[in-house]
Input
Amino acid sequence: MSPHESSPYMCIDPPIGDQIWRLELPETDASLREQLEAHVSACQACQLLRQLDQRARVLARQDALGRRETRLSGWLSLRGWMRPPVFAGAALVAAALAALIMPPRPVDLGGISRGAEDARFLRPVEGEVVGAGRHRLAWTPVEGASGYRVELRDSQGERVWSGESASPSAELPVTVALEPGTEYRALLGTQPADLLPPGGVSVAFRVGSPLRVALHRLRWTSPVLQGVGLVAAGLLIVFTVFRRGR
Output
């Protein structure tokens, strides 16, 4: 009995058996593929080898999938979000988004402001940079006022628009186009006229690009949001430096 016949785990035709890996290639010649498949059907050693190879491929795919699922579940879990770098990054993004969405605070004028404390413009606020497009002016209600007069002037003092409103807000008409890079001032009057202090109530604002609007809101957002953003950014820097140094 030959050695090949004495054991089922020895290839019956090694020159052909050494090429069975070509069965995994789609470009393998049809005649060679037929020859290799016939060899595998008759050779127990090559059958076992192919089974082991296929099993190894399945295990490798399962391992890779398990690793991805573990990483994903770690990021989505509360424990993952409570990791310092992830938490700091999420806090920084949340603070930035809130700063861009929420109205900014008035620009600090060194203690100087126009209008009484109980009568002031709410939108836009003093020194705000607004985008191009339609705008709504809003202010605090004035007790005893039956109506309001609003006037909009450019940086040269020329009147751009004026109108009246029964409520503490007024929307600029479509025909009023505010020029980018130009500063405007809105002035508020009441009916009757003696309900406001001398000089009335006014607010200065500027029209700018979306980038300037975003930068202004980040600069003049709530001090609380600024503090959260600075702390989160500092933590991210510390964690990054620490990880690189390890």
Notes: The chain has eight helices and eight strands. The two ends are 63 Å apart (CA to CA). Strands lie at 121-123, 128-130, 136-139, 147-154, 159-165, 169-171, 183-191, 201-207.
